[in-house]
């Protein structure tokens, strides 16, 4: 499938974001796919991500989803920031799980955007669902 010019620009924006996003780099995030208003990323859970209950800290799944959200809502090269987010944890996550977060745009408005991010593990089990509302500024990410 041939990518559109908009999708190519979206990929450039996300590459720029990843280059400067030290936290996403620390998480070990790999960008799998980017299209305008869409992103799909993955990471492998490491032992230092475990909480006191022996399962992955909820902040890890949240952070993965938040990165997918950021890549999807900013990839039109319009600086967008989180206005409201929420997450529902469905199943526990464990060491060595490979998590995939897929962000889909539900609404693209002039000043806001709404996204749903699903997180699945290597067994294709949905482990969390995240919803994010962003505010669009009047600034570009890449000049």
Describe this structure in words.
This protein has 143 residues and is α+β, with helices and mostly antiparallel strands. It has a single domain (5-136), classed as Roll (Thiol Ester Dehydrase, Chain A), CATH 3.10.129.10. It has three helices and six strands; from the N terminus they run ααββαββββ. It has helices at 5-20, 22-27, 58-74; strands at residues 30-35, 38-44, 80-89, 98-108, 112-120, 126-136. Strands 1-2-4-5-6-3 form a six-stranded antiparallel sheet. The longest helix is centred in the middle third of the chain and has 17 residues, at 58-74. It is globular, with a radius of gyration of 15 Å.
What proportion of the residues is helical, as a percent range?
A: 25-40%
What's the architecture, going by CATH? Answer: Roll
> What's the domain count?
1
Largest sheet: 6 strands, antiparallel
Q: Can you tell me the CATH class?
A: Alpha Beta
Mean pLDDT score? 96
